[in-house]
Amino acid sequence: MGLSRAATFPYSLNMFDSRLSLQTLRESIANRSISCREIAEFFWARIEKHNAAINAIVAIDPEIAIESAKDIDRRLANGEALPALAGLPISIKDILCTRQGTTTCGSKMLAKYQSPFDAHLVIRLYDSGAIVMGKTNLDEFAMGGSTENSIFGPSRNPWDNSRTCGGSSGGSAAAVAAGLSPASIGTDTGGSIRQPASFCGVCGIKPTYGRVSRYGLIAYGSSLDVAGAFAHTVEDLALVLTSIAGHDPRDSTCLPDPVPNYAEEIRQAPKNLRIGVVREHLEDNGLDNELREALHASIETYKRLGASIVDISLPHSKYCIPTYYIIAPCEASSNLSRYDGAHYGFRAEPDPKTTSASPLESMYENTRSQGFGAEVRRRILLGTYALSAGYYDAYYLKALKVRRLIRKDYDAAFEKVDVLLGPTTPRPAFRLGEKINDPVQLYLEDLFTVGANLAGIPALSIPIGQTRSGLPLGMQLQAPPLRESTLLAAGHWYQQQTGYVPSIPPAFAAS
Ligand code: GLN
């Protein structure tokens, strides 16, 4: 794996000028105006040219990708009926196990880890004919909101490279925004798909908890983690989700409910859509003014289209951040106890002159203090503290009770409305370095996203405009459990009616 192969490609970006959407590429493959090999080479050439500026993709094997694309071309030439994602390149967050190459989680702990198996969703992508092309950057073990906690260094926002692309799935969002990958797979424990999507001006979906198997998704917070997708359009998200969702007996929390063909379901414009505007989110004092204006304009758009707008309160939303930042670290501290230097991954030497610990204990201690970065260590400490005998009831158990109340708020809201509308983040992308030394400031950025994870409901972020200085602004839609069809239909409707899909940022427009 490495980023080094000279590629020549005769096509210009304009060839795919409906924002390199999967749908457009699919049609071009179907009508034979381009081969899958040419598409793979095209994206490889773009990665080679542009990735250094944003550090979105951290590993790629172009030879394997191009061979797989050629195989799809052969099947096409033989007249085979091909699956939904045949020949479409998709990059994958480096927290999902792939047999090909390493799966690092952005951590020194797993820097050399080679998974002996593919994650369930990776197998689903292969079965759907997708060309898995590149692993994307992330905060270490998905803890963070800026990719600044990655051993690979931060990814940069393609709209302004002094700013963050968000996180933890920031590499995926940046890769899609810059046109290096037409779609990407990320994971979302507290906003890691929606926040970077919003910062980079692309669409991102966090499905219902359990809709997509977690088998082969390296665990952060097991009751919150879910994999989802990034793309330029909601239509493309529907295409990818249809392929990756569904039951998997290897994940006991994976839902058995049948998977609709989301791409088909969203074709019909929603009828009598009731949209709840989350009062606490729109009236939040910290909300950026330009973002508030753009959200009001989106509400007006929906009104014009005939949706009814309802004022909704989620009274416990102010407890979302403290609740999440107890539950997620508790689960993380338990999940990450497996990295002890003995089973797999990085191992440090014991201190030769240790007197206070046995050599084995000293090895554990050194491995964990050298193998994990500062933020991961902080979360492990927070989690073990909140789970310890004297504090369990006061913190962890209390947080679980508040989580229940947060879910009840959503249940009550969804008796009145079909989807909830609000901001994805309080502000557009912040500057790299601006918050990394103040963890609490960074945690507060997750104010609007963590509720959906605590409640287990699906949520979507879509671009709704830009600030006057050119930074993307995002809107969040949330829906009841397993109502991805409604959620995607509401987002698709908006994109179709407004025609608003951000272009590739100017610095990345050249092929
Ligand atoms: N920013 C949040 C955190 O650091 C969410 C991360 C995520 O969704 N993986 O926990």
Description:
The chain is α/β, with parallel strands linked by helices. It has a domain at 26-271 and 459-509: Amidase signature (AS) domain (Amidase signature (AS) enzymes), CATH 3.90.1300.10. 39% of the residues lie in helices and 13% in strands. It has 17 helices and 13 strands. The strands form two sheets. It has an eleven-stranded mixed β-sheet with strand order 1-3-2-6-8-7-12-13-11-9-10, with helices on both faces. Helix 5 (170-177) runs parallel beside helix 6 (194-200), helix 11 crosses helix 13 (374-387) and helix 11 packs across helix 14 (393-416). The chain starts with 21 loop residues before the first helix and ends in a 13-residue tail after the last helix. Residues 1-19 have low confidence and may be disordered. The protein binds glutamine.
